[in-house]
Structure prediction request, 115 residues.
Amino acid sequence: LPSITFKGRTVRIARDQQAMLDNVANQLRQSPDCKVVVTGHAQASKASEQLAWDRANAVITYLTEKQGVSADRLLFQYSGVPGDINSVDLRAATDADSGLPNTTPPPHPNLRRSK
Prediction:
C-alpha cells in the first residue's frame, strides 16, 4: 500500500494523493476482510504530534467520507513510529495490530490546527 505525502505543514490531500487513496479504497472493496493501519509520523514535539494526528485523520476521513470505506477497517496510529514526518503510511493490518483503535482523540487539541 502507498504512502501519502503532504507538502509543508498542510493536512490537505493533493489530487495525485487522492488518486492513490481511491486505489486503496478499490483494493479494500475487493478484499472485504482486510483492514489497513494508517500511520502518521511525528518528531518529539507537541506541534509535530498534532500534525501527524491531523494528517492520519485526514486520510481516514477521506477514505470513509469520500470513498465509503467502513471506519472499522482503518486502524489509527501516529507518533512514536519511525518514518517520514511528511507522509502517512498505509499497510495491511496483521494480528499484532488488533489492539489499535480506529479513532483516537487529538493529542493536543488546544494547539492551533494546521491548514
Q: What stands out?
A: The chain has a mean pLDDT of 91. The beta strands are 3-5, 36-40, 74-78, 87-92.
